[in-house]
Amino acid sequence: MKASVVGVHQSETHSFSKPTVGEITLVEGIGVAGDAHSGTTVQHLSRVKKNASTPNMRQVHLMHRELFEQLARDGYSVVPGDLGENITTSGVDVLALPVGTRLMIADAVITVTGLRNPCFQINDFQPGLLKKVLFTNDDGETVRLSGVMGIVSRGGVVRSGDEITVTLPPEPHYPLTPV
User: Fold this and answer.
1) InterPro entries recorded for this chain (predicted)?
2) The pLDDT of residue 80
C-alpha cells in the first residue's frame, strides 16, 4: 500500500476538531495557511501563556487513519479531523518515524519534529478516549498515539489523494518525543 493523504483539515479558530476542506496550503516556516496553529512561534494557547516567543515546532499535525480504525474496534467513533489534525494519512506508520523525517506531499515538504502530546480535551470529545491514545505499556513506557507534529520545510498545496514520499534522515535515527 502506498502512503497517501486521506483528508486535509483546517480551522481559523482554536477549536478541538477541524473541518475537512478540499485542500490546504502549507507555507514554509509558518504552517497551514489560515489555521489557528500556524506561525513561526507557538500558537497553542497553553504554550503561548508559558512563552509566546518559543519557535513553533507544531506547525502541522498529522494523524494516521489506521488509528481511527483501531479506535472503532474499541467502540469509539472518530473520523478524520475530529482530533484536530491537519493531515490524515494512510499507509505510513507516522508514529514510528524518526525525528527529522521528511514527508513530501505534492510540492510540499514537512519535516517531522515530534509526537503530539494528547490532552484532557480528548475526554471532553468522547469520554474514555484519552486512555486509548495515552497510556503506559507493560514496560512502564508512556505511549502516545495521537499523531505527529512537523514544520513546513517547503510550501505547497496538499489535497486528499496525494501520495506521500517518506525520506528518512541520516543515521543515527532518534525516536520521536513530545513537542
Assistant:
1) MoCF_Sase_C, MOSC_domain, Pyrv_Knase-like_insert_dom_sf
2) 98
